[in-house]
Design brief:
Length: about 375
């Protein structure tokens, strides 16, 4: 893993204070066809609590939003009321998916000026949203595809989520599944644009590059780079398709065509006990990708000793990867919208800082090994 220098503007030598300006992900907003049902689904299946609502009843004219929370994770589901609204057009083009990965900041005006002067495109200039519970400063810039980043400064605000949102107090039962925070947000990019987006996060937002990797299997090839902000709280692994011999569409190519362009491919959430989390999610009806049995036969040799029970991992299809700092356990859920686009990853870390890229090769080898075993019968 290598690190590259920060944008000098973000270091103590530059114009900026030494403290990181991005305080973490404030929320992730998804544009969906039916926000009410999406929020209900994320509550009953993924264990989120419904916390806030905005819509015609709260003074919003043409859209509705539901906010759900779990640990420090906050998701917002937004739908248009009118079919001509840009939110409806976004959903028609991309399907249900992520629109805004919003950052919590201490000074919206300052970071907006800095980021725009470093080349970011403006979507919304800094504005103050005010009500009796205080004020929020918000600005938005364009990112990959139609995705945006908002900067949210909420230190002078004591109300629910954002102005115009009403708190939901009448709580329906929730099965806890143990998510504590967002670990990373993975991004699919069009071929040939990976370098430019890694540069964007380095130059405009002062991120570090964590690592880069080119992976090729018989069925797909991809280039990947991961970037993180200086606090390490925001991590974006990014991938683009690379030329390959196979006629089949790779997972990234399938995402790009189904989503009509680049976007957020998966949201990875951290748990302290992945075995318990996956048991709860499965009983809530969430489906996960299957792992060939041969993967687990090869596992002890590949990753060495781990604390978890191998049989439980095999039963639940949980994957394991090791890097120089430790190991991680991870599993990928199947997409929960009609298009094969956004999906969830559940991850537990025991020291590891990577994203489990060793599993791409290990999964491929285990499929190959099972094919060999079948052919030899
Ligand atoms: Fe991931």
């Amino acid at each position: 893993m290598t690190t590259t220098p920060l944008n000098p503007a973000f270091t103590p030598q530059g114009n900026h204070p030494a403290t990181p300006l991005l305080q973490g992900i404030d929320y992730i907003e998804l544009y969906v066809g039916n926000a009410q049902q999406a929020a209900h689904f994320y509550r009953t299946s993924f264990g989120f609590t419904l916390t806030a609502y905005a819509g015609p009843e709260t003074g919003v004219r043409d859209w509705v939003s539901y906010v759900v929370e779990q640990g420090s994770i906050r998701l917002v589901f937004t739908s248009a009321i009118d079919g001509d609204h840009p939110i409806a057009q976004h959903v028609a083009l991309h399907g249900d998916g992520v629109k805004d990965v919003a950052f919590n900041v201490t000074n919206t005006e300052q970071i907006f000026q800095l980021v725009v002067s470093a080349g970011a495109k403006t979507v919304a200039e800094p504005t103050t949203i005010e009500e009796e519970r205080g004020q929020v400063q918000r600005a938005t810039i364009a990112a990959f595809g139609d995705t945006v980043h908002s900067f949210i400064q909420r230190d002078a605000y004591e109300g629910t989520f954002l102005p115009k949102y009403h708190k939901i107090t009448q709580q329906l039962p929730v099965t806890p599944v143990g998510f504590s925070e967002i670990d990373h947000v993975a991004i699919c990019l069009e071929a040939g644009t990976l370098d430019q987006w890694a540069e964007f996060y380095r130059n405009a937002l002062g991120f570090y590059q964590l690592h880069e990797e080119n992976i090729e299997t018989e069925h797909s090839a991809m280039n990947s780079k991961a970037v993180a902000d200086s606090s390490g709280r925001i991590k974006f692994p990014m991938q683009e398709p690379a030329p390959n011999k196979s006629k089949n569409k790779s997972q990234i190519e399938e995402y790009l065509s189904s989503h009509s362009g680049p976007g957020v491919q998966h949201i990875a959430v951290l748990t302290e006990n992945i075995v318990e989390s996956i048991r709860a999610l499965r009983s809530n009806g969430i489906d996960f990708r299957k792992t060939p049995g041969a993967y687990y036969d090869m596992l002890p040799e590949r990753v060495g000793a781990i604390k978890e029970d191998l049989e439980a991992l095999r039963e639940l299809n949980i994957l394991v990867d090791r890097d120089e700092w430790g190991y991680l356990l991870q599993i990928f859920a199947k997409p929960v919208q009609s298009r094969p686009t956004l999906f969830a990853e559940i991850i537990q870390r025991d020291g590891a800082r990577g994203f489990g890229s060793g599993n791409i090769k290990a999964l491929f080898q285990s499929i190959e090994r099972e094919q060999m075993l079948r052919n030899s019968l």
